[in-house]
Amino acid sequence: MSDISRIRNFSIIAHIDHGKSTIADRIIHKCGGLTDREMKTQVLDSMDIERERGITIKAQTVKLKYNAKDGKEYILNIIDTPGHVDFGYEVSRSLSACEGSLLVVDSTQGVEAQTLANVYQALEINHEVIPVLNKIDLPASDIEKTKKEIEDVVGIDTSNAIKCSGKTGEGVEDILEAIVKNLPAPKGVQEEKLKSLLVDSWYDTYLGVVILVRVINGKIKKNMKIRLMSNEQEYIIEKVGIFTPKPTDIEELNSGEIGFIITGIKSLSETKVGDTICDASNPIETPLPGFKPSKPVVFCGLFPVDSSEYQKLKDGLGKLKLNDASFSYEAESSSALGLGFRCGFLGLLHLEIITERLEREFDVNLITTTPGVIYKVHKVKGEVVDLQNPSSMPDPTQVVKIEEPWIKATIITPDEYLGSIIKICQDKRGIQTNLSYSGNRAVLSYDLPLNEVVFDFNDRLKSVSSGYASFDYEITGHKEGNLVKLGILVNGESVDALAMIIHKDFAQSTGRQVCEKLKDLIPRHNFMIPIQAAIGGKIVARESIKGFSKDVLTKIHGGGATDRKKKLLKKQKKGKARSKQFGKVEIPQEAFIGVLRINKENS
């Protein structure tokens, strides 16, 4: 159908677990996208891990036909977006392909931090937003309170808010009518040159790279030669299709429509998200503004427990990278853990999901080093170095200052947990910037160093608030910090895998804990082993593991310090000194895993 005025492109945005995917299921069912037999819950969450955790990781699209009450047939293109902070870049690209959004709020929970973040992204690009109050079938549902909260915290008029239940299907018809009446049709001219946006791309084993596109002007047809404007590469389109949600081949995509194309591209790196696609024979001059590229913010080392699984880990990372352009990795070797990879992630959930997929889909047992962030190290000669791995920190005499990334955090919590949450933020070197109220819920804004948040902040927040507090953040930039590299020495040798960059105030206590932990976990040798924590050349903590002591005097009878006894003890002392000089201290992997858990135990 070529009538652009009857197309509606919209996104479903909400906090985690507020019912986006379930409402998408009801809309698909109501419009006949799938039969009763084909329907399953969270039909758009295709990965096993998405279904198990009940979260959406990849944004998904569906094209549906809807016969409205005014007697006209409309085309609805839904993009179901993730709700978690780590996948915010998926949300931003999905919103750019639409003109409007359904804002789903759980009427039993009210507005949460991620609701706020996503709706602000939608309002920034001038989306028309329809508020939807979900889960009205539950006894705890409070419609009026939720409406007031949306007006107070988000600032959207809720007089036309739609009440619905994703579970029972009540109110779904009203949502569909509101979409066709209140959301704008896309603007686009069929007769103009082709201009389309590359929304997403992923790798399919049989088809190669599948590209999701939103056509702005003109049309995309099979066998057409297209150009990707970022790298000037040209390709011939082999296949054009839409998701209904089943992939369905069609002849062409017109202005305002969303669908996929296949061009025989084999490498995902050639398809940059946010790129502009135009007709190679009749190109346009100015590309679309595109998106900010997603940059990894959390780094950690992944090492196989069994060194023979290195190749399996390498293959697994290569395959995951095919479908996730936001994840990066490079080879790394550690004297303690062997060969592995330094990997970059968008956040802690992203890290958790990648490691879980490696263990589950590729059957690799992993050791994960402590997550860290990118520091900017300013050197004496004016050079600025990005530092991901603490072991590559330059000599302290060469460093002028170290800057660390900071975030702006928004925390929404019931009033009774406010004191405990402020205490956590202060412990993490946070600076409070705002505190406001909506009913009995506090909206708290804090500036925090990302390094303090990255490890266990969310877990602690959930535990002190009984799971009621919600947290969202955005990176604001780098600030100078009083940071030092804490090195761990075992028998005088530095152990690179245990080095960490830490605030000077916490360095001594953390160093002491690491030394105590290693003392318990490293087995005794024939000689005494010193374990030290050092900042530069200064030792800040020390523990010693006593060596085994063989009683060389048992064979000698009689008392007194005879020359023979002295000779034997002297010989033993010499032997111990030689073993210490040439003996190698074997650090078992349990020791590394034990030290990596220290931060969690501190919490």
Top CATH class of the largest domain:
Alpha Beta
DSSP helix fraction: 25-40%
* Weakly predicted, low-confidence segments: 41-58
Amino-to-carboxy terminus distance: 58 Å
Beta-strand content: 25-35%
The dominant shape is elongated
Strand order, main sheet: write it out: 11-10-16-7-8-15-12-13
Q: What's the CATH architecture of the largest domain?
A: 3-Layer(aba) Sandwich
Model description:
The protein is an alpha+beta fold and 603 residues long. It folds into five domains: 4-182, Rossmann fold (3-Layer(aba) Sandwich); 195-279, Beta Barrel (Elongation Factor Tu (Ef-tu), domain 3), CATH 2.40.30.10; 298-369, Elongation Factor G (Translational Gtpase), domain 3 (Alpha-Beta Plaits, 2-Layer Sandwich), CATH 3.30.70; 394-481, Alpha-Beta Plaits (2-Layer Sandwich), CATH 3.30.70.240; 485-602, Elongation factor 4, C-terminal domain (Alpha-Beta Plaits, 2-Layer Sandwich), CATH 3.30.70.2570. The strands form six sheets. Strands 11-10-16-7-8-15-12-13 form an eight-stranded antiparallel sheet. A hairpin with a 5-residue loop joins β2 (60-67) and β3 (73-80). The longest helix is centred in the C-terminal third of the chain and has 20 residues, at 563-582. The radius of gyration is 29 Å and the shape is elongated. The model is unreliable at 41-58 (pLDDT under 50).
